[in-house]
Design brief:
Layout (H helix, E strand, L loop, with lengths): L4 E5 L3 H12 L4 E5 L2 H10 L4 E4 L8 H11 L4 E6 L4 H10 L3 E4 L4 H15 L15 H14 L6 H12 L4 H11 L3 H10 L11 E6 L2 H5 L2 H12 L12 E6 L11 E3 L2 E3 L4 H9 L3 H20 L1
Parallel strand pairs: 1-2, 1-3, 3-4, 4-5, 6-7
Antiparallel strand pairs: 6-8, 8-9
Helix pairs in contact: 2-3, 3-4, 4-9, 6-7, 7-8, 8-9, 11-12, 12-13
Length: 309
């Protein structure tokens, strides 16, 4: 069976090219459209299985395009890919029936994960029934069903269910939000509004260990920028990203409530103060044997170089 044909819609050519490069390397059939108007013209002339669309575009925006596709070509699967995910537009898109959501800037792993899930949809497998994504296997799905069943008649059940769902799945993508909406008989827009309001909920996959660095004034003055740069360089990720092996996620926050310890880093539930780039990586290495080994080797090389010098 041929790979699904995918149309990437964005008013920034660099975004289209980036997505094309990632997805074509995996064998997908990709085309691009610079905006909603061009996308409609292409969809009228050709057949597509998936459309990845930005939301904020001139003339014909993403929501207008989604509405047109749902009316004119309802069999096409739709994924949002945007750097401006306002709460209202995401809620509207969820209600219109998008498959998933990719934030910009995106990493290759996140884009590929979402594409794989969307492809299953095009093959006639509803997202709730997928058994292909590692982070959402059948056993996990069964546990989520059990949690929804146990809480469904309890007052104020939404937040406890979302908390347990995030513990089970690791994050709260649209497919999980729709599943909870259906199971609790709560509008999907209400589910999304709660997910987007509380900072401890996330719609993006997180690693086994979540690293949070404080970007507030006290930490900034005391050098958190150098700490963040070192973490980015070593783990090869940016703020909001997850490492390729899903070991670590990196999150920037405005306050961690520990200004007296500035600059501050939190890993999972553990708080570390007076961070320096070297100290931060030493602590992070304790969570990953491979990083610890690499750090030891680097230190040995530095000592050798000093002696030779």
């Amino acid at each position: 069976m041929a790979e699904p044909k995918i149309l990437i819609v964005d008013d920034e050519l660099v975004v289209i090219k980036s997505a094309e490069r990632v997805l074509r390397s995996e064998g997908y059939d990709i085309e691009g459209a610079l905006g909603g108007r061009e996308a409609i013209m292409k969809i009228e002339q050709k057949s597509y299985d998936l459309v990845f669309t930005d939301l904020k575009m001139p003339e014909v925006d993403g929501i207008t395009l989604i509405r047109w596709i749902k009316k004119s070509k309802p069999s096409i699967g739709i994924v949002i890919i945007t750097g401006y995910p306002s709460q209202d537009t995401i809620k509207e898109a969820l209600e219109l029936g998008i498959i998933d959501y990719v934030p910009k800037p995106f990493t290759p792993s996140v884009l590929l994960d979402v594409t794989e899930r969307a492809v299953e949809w095009t093959k006639g497998i509803k997202p709730e029934e997928q058994k292909v994504a590692e982070e959402f296997p059948p056993a996990m799905d069964a546990e989520l069903e059990r949690v929804i069943y146990d809480y469904r008649k309890k007052p104020g059940c939404l937040i406890p269910v979302l908390q347990r769902a995030q513990e089970i799945v690791g994050y709260l993508p649209p497919v999980v939000q729709r599943k909870i909406s259906k199971g609790l008989n709560i509008p999907v827009a209400e589910v999304h509004s709660v997910v987007s309001f509380y900072s401890f909920f996330t719609m993006k996959p997180r690693g086994d260990h979540n690293i949070r660095v404080c970007l507030g004034t006290a930490c900034y003055v005391k050098g958190i920028e150098g700490v963040v740069s070192k973490i980015k360089e070593t783990l090869k990720i940016g703020i909001g990203d997850t490492t390729e092996n899903r070991k670590f996620s990196l999150e920037g926050v405005r306050c961690l409530g520990a200004c007296g310890l500035a600059p501050v880093m939190v890993i999972d539930q553990d708080t570390y103060g007076a961070m320096s780039p070297k100290k931060a990586m030493g602590i992070i290495s304790q969570y990953d044997p491979a990083l610890a080994e690499a750090a030891t080797s680097e230190e040995a090389e530095e000592e050798m170089a000093e002696k030779e010098g």
